[in-house]
Design goal:
This protein is of the alpha+beta class and 473 residues long. The protein has helices spanning 3-59, 62-76, 107-116, 151-186, 188-199, 217-264, 271-301, 315-329, 357-373, 406-409, 431-441, and strands at residues 83-87, 93-98, 118-122, 127-136, 140-149, 311-314, 335-339, 352-355, 382-389, 392-399, 445-451, 455-463. A hairpin with a 5-residue loop joins strand 1 and strand 2 (93-98). Helices cover 54% and strands 17% of the residues. The chain contains eleven helices and twelve strands.
Length: 473
């Protein structure tokens, strides 16, 4: 079922139920009002009959009583099927007018009237029977019972019922048709959004939905979708840039490798010359391997964080492991380590984070290797310190190398970017971008501070995994 059909049916159902309840309320209160009015009319008839009868009986004049009876008969004709009976204290009928074929009045009604003074009995087909206790100064108490059919109310309520039912049917038909067009009109902006979304492909992600300039729900949806398109366009642009730059970086060592081999095959060479060619080819292959590993690591660091295995990692041990590895890679580079004391009261898990050990090791190696490469020849050692404060672990790597300008510092996290003053230093420009991705996956941050000619400072921040000691020190 479409949303338009569902909205039309729901709108029609709500309005139909509302009209039905309103009609029931009208019918009920109209019925009760006419019923109460007819009840009071019967009580008035009963009092008049009692007064006329007892007044004529007290006179004792036969002609007066006959005159009163003729008056009463004329009076009775105004109510259909009316019957009035007057009972004495012995529950005997002393006066009766109206239809004689009515059944006798139940004794419980007479007893209830004598106890309460006033009774009303509702019967089928709009018939009512009322009883009241009438007191005469000369002859005592009498029970007057009047019964009649409210034919006028019966007819009027039947007509009202027909009118209400016809009105409900007509209203429901009109509401159904109107609801259908109303739902169609209300969903027209959504249909335009769907049509515009269908027209957007990967080649034209710059297009945006046109329904995002209002304040209704459709406009809010279009605004959210436009923001999604912004993120997708940015991601696609980053992917295209990454592929382009990766292709360029891969082509450079491959071109050098092929060139060396082609030159070596142009003529016969001595074993020493072939050895030099093989060494040059090996160096190019190693560069290609390093670049490929870096690209694979960037792809791995870009995965869904929930899909990366995590475990408690001792960051101090990891920093020592990275230091040992850098001593093998850069034996000429001196790296000094500094560790602060653990935060008081949390010595149970000092310098521990929850993360992926392999990725965190790559991040540490990247910043240490950059510090060594870009500080060659400065004579000052690289300082790597680990501190713990405020529930965070901070790894700071500081060198006094060539540094970089502020404009270059703003782009250090762009893959394959290399500053102008480090073009001669071997590298591919993927170390810091990879480190930033790894920190993001671990809910951490990376910050680079640098000044041209005065060195660079890289600060890694990670949330610590700690348990308080039982004594709470």
């Amino acid at each position: 079922m479409t949303i338009r059909t569902r909205l039309a049916l729901q709108f029609a159902a709500i309005l139909a139920i509302t009209l039905l309840l309103f009609s029931l309320v009208i019918y009920f209160f109209t019925f009760r009002s006419r019923q109460d009015f007819f009840t009071e009319s019967l009580f008035a008839r009963a009092r008049i009959v009692a007064h006329v009868y007892l007044d004529g009986a007290n006179r004792g004049d036969e002609s007066s009583q006959a005159s009163y009876r003729r008056y009463l008969r004329q009076f009775y004709r105004t109510l259909p099927e009316e019957q009035v009976r007057v009972y004495n204290t012995a529950n005997q009928v002393v006066f009766q007018e109206g239809q004689p074929d009515r059944a006798s009045v139940p004794m419980d009604l007479l007893a209830a009237v004598r106890d309460g003074g006033r009774q009303v009995r509702l019967e089928d087909n709009f018939r009512q029977t009322v009883g009241l206790l009438y007191h005469d100064l000369h002859r005592g108490y009498f029970v007057v019972v009047a019964s009649s059919v409210d034919a006028d109310s019966r007819e009027k309520m039947r007509n009202l019922l027909h009118i209400l039912l016809a009105g409900l049917l007509v209203s429901f038909s009109l509401v159904s048709v109107g609801g259908w067009f109303f739902a169609r009109q209300a969903l027209r902006p959504m249909q335009r959004v769907v049509a515009e979304v269908d027209s957007i492909t990967a080649s034209d992600l710059h297009h945006r939905l046109s329904q995002a300039d209002g304040q209704d729900e459709v406009s809010h949806l279009a605004q959210r979708f436009n923001r999604l398109l912004d993120r997708l366009e940015k991601a696609f642009a980053g992917q295209r840039t990454f592929v382009r730059d990766a292709s360029h970086e891969l082509r450079t060592p491959l071109t050098a490798l092929i060139g060396e081999l082609e030159v070596a095959l142009l003529q016969e060479r001595t074993p020493a010359q072939y050895r030099r060619v093989l060494q040059s080819t090996l160096d190019s292959a190693r560069l290609l391997k390093d670049l490929t590993n870096g690209l694979l690591q960037i792809a791995r660091a870009s995965d869904d964080p929930s899909q990366i295995s995590r475990s408690p990692v001792s960051l101090d041990q990891l920093l020592l492991q990275a230091h040992e590895e850098m001593q093998r890679r850069q034996p000429a580079c001196r790296i000094d380590l500094a560790f602060s004391d653990p935060q008081p009261g949390y010595e149970a898990l000092p310098y521990t984070v929850m993360g992926n050990e392999a990725l965190l090791l790559v991040a540490l190696l990247n910043i240490l290797e950059n510090a060594c490469k870009f500080s060659t020849g400065c004579g000052a050692p690289v300082l790597a310190s680990l501190t713990s404060a405020g529930g965070e672990l901070r790894v700071e790597v500081r060198d006094e190398g060539m540094g970089m300008s502020e404009a270059d510092r703003q782009q250090v996290f762009v893959p394959f970017f290399r500053a102008d003053n480090v073009r001669t230093v071997p590298g591919h420009g993927i170390g810091l971008p990879l480190t930033a991705k790894i920190m993001s996956l671990h809910s951490g941050t990376v910050e680079v501070l640098s000044e041209l000619g005065k060195g660079t400072q890289v600060l890694l921040t990670l949330p610590a995994l700690r348990e308080k000691l039982p004594n709470g020190r």
